[in-house]
Design a protein that fits this description.
By secondary structure, the protein is of the alpha/beta class. Helix 2 runs parallel beside helix 3 and helix 6 runs antiparallel to helix 10. The protein is globular.
Length: 385
């Protein structure tokens, strides 16, 4: 079965897409990546999206319009990718997260927009969507869903191994002796990107090659203030997002110092915050092997900082596990789509805190009648190639 995976992450800079051809024998699944890519949002659409995100106030009218416009953007990307491989059997879209509701340490709800009916109309294949909420109804955080893929890729490794994704938010999956723990560590690129965009330091919206950060110095007082955030002391499972870590959050910590902070020092300090929080958690878990993915893996200051702080840990890119460091989450959503169509739960309780595994998502039929394949009992193993 050919499944097309789509997402836009917490950096909300564009749409990642992949097509994976899955085959299965007795629970052993093999996936061949046929297509992968990333398409930036139209600048005007991205600007509207950013303006509507927390802590900004918005209207239901704006949410409705963005739901349609983002759905149409996803549909265009999906149609092009599907055509490039001669068609697909199903699509799984994550959409764009606009709110993740955490109350008293528990996930209460989550909202992803990007209307899947537009994708079904353009591609003609059934579309799996709204994949996080089913986990939340079972007591999970709805995140990090990538823990399902991570566990399969890390399974069988000796000692304690982990997969780290450095998107807008950093999340980590730790596997040790068959046990799994996964959670959101804290901000990876979210705060740096917010500052870069606010001050127009790079039209791309991120600190390319850490050039801005490398021109500044760590402000130790500001870093200490940021590290004192109670979120870091919470036990896993836990999840967070831009509802908590946003530009006004940075401004609040900086203004509390009672003095000016150079913008280059601000970016350097926020980059060091990511290194420090991730390294602390990796060290505390006793991780010997760490596979890194996401946009932050291209930031030399972060990667060099992690390797320097973790001399006892082998730090590599996720490519060594068979999943592209730039495309792992798109592969995840293709896998979730395959699992949902085959009746397989695509979530691990230890990964999200859910009481039990659940089949994820809602299915929008394609051009014809919805025909489900024969169910598969479980996924025992996964190889990618």
């Amino acid at each position: 079965m050919r499944v097309l995976g789509l997402l836009s992450g917490t950096s909300h800079d564009g749409i990642d897409v992949t097509v994976v051809d899955f085959s299965e024998v007795d629970g052993a699944v093999h996936g061949t990546v046929l297509h992968e890519g990333s398409v930036p949002y139209d600048p005007a659409l991205r600007a509207r999206l950013v303006a509507a995100l927390p802590p900004a106030q918005t209207t239901l009218a704006e949410v409705c319009e963005l739901d349609t416009l983002i759905g149409q953007a996803f549909a265009g990307v999906a149609a092009d990718a599907a055509a490039s491989v001669g068609g697909v059997d199903a699509v799984c879209t994550h959409g764009q997260t606009v709110y993740h509701w955490i109350d008293d340490g528990h996930a209460r709800g989550t909202l992803q927009i990007g209307q899947p009916a537009w994708i079904a109309e353009r591609v003609g294949a059934p579309v799996v969507s709204d994949v996080r909420i089913r986990d939340i109804t079972a007591g999970g955080h709805g995140a990090p869903l990538v823990s399902f893929l991570d566990e399969l890729l890390l399974r069988g490794r000796a000692g304690t191994s982990a997969a780290l994704n450095l998107g807008g938010i950093a999340n980590m999956t730790v596997v040790a002796d068959g046990a799994i723990s996964a959670y959101d560590v804290g901000p990876a690129n979210a705060l740096v990107d917010a500052v870069i965009a606010k001050y127009g330091l790079n039209p791309l919206g991120y600190d390319e090659d850490a050039r801005v950060a490398l021109s500044g110095d760590v402000d130790d007082e500001l870093l200490a203030s940021l590290l004192a955030d109670p979120y870091y002391a919470l036990a896993a499972p836990k999840s967070t997002g831009k509802e908590h870590f946003h530009l006004d959050y940075v401004r609040g910590h900086a203004s509390a110092l009672g003095r000016d902070v150079r913008v280059t020092d601000l970016v350097r300090t926020l980059t060091e915050l990511t290194v420090r929080t991730v390294a602390d958690d990796v060290r505390a878990a006793g991780v010997g092997f760490l596979a890194v993915s996401g946009g932050g893996c291209h930031n030399p200051l972060i990667m060099n900082g992690l390797r320097a702080a973790l001399p006892a840990t082998e730090v590599v890119l996720a490519d060594e596990l068979g999943a592209s460091a730039d495309n792992k989450e798109a592969i995840l959503f293709a896998l979730i789509g395959w699992c949902t169509m085959h009746g397989v739960p695509a979530v691990i309780p230890g990964g999200t805190g859910a009481r039990e595994p659940r089949i994820l998502g809602t299915i929008t039929p394609g051009a014809g009648p919805l025909r489900m394949p024969e169910p598969v009992a479980s996924v025992r193993s996964l190889t990618l190639g």
